[in-house]
Amino acid sequence: MDSDISEILRQWEYEPGSIAVRKFTGRDGREKIQLRVDLGILQMNAQGRPDGKKPLGHPSLLEFYLARLQQHREAHGGEDDGFGLTPEDCSKLQAEALQYHHRSICELQLADHAGVTRDTERNLKVFDFVTRYAESSDLAWSLQQFRPQLLMMHTRAVAMPLLQANDFGAAIRQIEDGMEMIRDFYRQHGRTDLLEESNELQSLQEWLMDVEQRRPLSARQRMERQLARALAREDYEKAAELRDKLKKLDVPETPGA
Fold first, then answer.
1. pTM over 0.85
2. Helix (H, G, I), strand (E, B), or coil: what is residue 168?
3. So where are the chain's domains?
4. I want to staple 36 with a disulfide (CB 3.0 to 4.6 A). Which of 10, 20, 74, 190 is the partner?
């Protein structure tokens, strides 16, 4: 086997500041994703655990620890008391979560919104699991500090298909809900001082403003804009006409009319 990948790298130049991603089918028949980085290429499976491994016979380490929790409950009358995650356990779960995070970044670039949703929800589950069972709050924070970024990516993945379906109302609600979850995170951890500095909140706020500007206007909204323009250019005859039309929109139709 020729281990030198210089030719592959030469054909796929690295561009600083950009995210270069591609998807293809590997020799094993499974879909792969590649991410070009400055010193080479990261390759991962598109489904399952990104590195394709089955740690301790489970699809992922998370599922191994969840199975271990279930065994503990069965041995202790359904109670969680006594079950905990050591620093080593948390470190392993964090390393695995990073694999899924890398993949979700690639999926976002590939517009694979279902994939982003799946992997971000999976990692949020890891964060909650570690927060619940880690032996110390410091261990939990090592993961929780990345929650705002995950929430932002998840929000984009959920809202984008709604925009593509022209459901602007539902998309706007999803963006607003995502922003509120990020704010709640900072409030719960007593870090409201970081709200104004949050890149994730700023990114979603800018996106929300863009979506609201592109949202199709209702008949009333169109006439209200036309009225504002007519008043601005002192076209009072047109303004009066538009006011009459707006008043008619407020008058309910007579049954049978």
1. no
2. helix
3. 46-214, 220-250
4. 20
> Which of 65, 111, 56 shows the shortest CA–CA distance to 86?
65
For residue 41, the cross-strand partners are 36
Identify residue 199 by its one-letter amino acid code.
N
Question: What is the helix (H) or strand (E) element at residue 35, kind and residue range?
Answer: strand 31-37
CB-count burial class (<10 Å; 0-12, 13-18, 19+) for 187? exposed
Torsion of CA 56, 60, 66, 67, to 10 degrees: -40
In angstroms, the first-to-last Cα distance of the chain is: 83
Q: What is the pLDDT of residues 157-205, one digit of tens each?
A: 999 999 999 999 999 999 999 999 999 999 998 888 888 889 999 999 9
Residue 50 near residue 102 (C-beta atoms within 8 A): yes
Question: Does position 249 have pLDDT exceeding 60, yes or no?
Answer: yes
Sign of CA dihedral 45, 115, 208, 185: negative
CA-nearest of 152, 149, 134 to 206 is 152
Which of 1.20.120, 1.10.3470, 1.25.40, 2.30.30 would CATH assign to domain 46-214? 1.25.40
Maximum C-alpha span of the chain: 83
* 204 and 155 Cβ atoms separated by less than 8 Å: yes
- Between CA 102 and CA 107 the distance in angstroms is 9
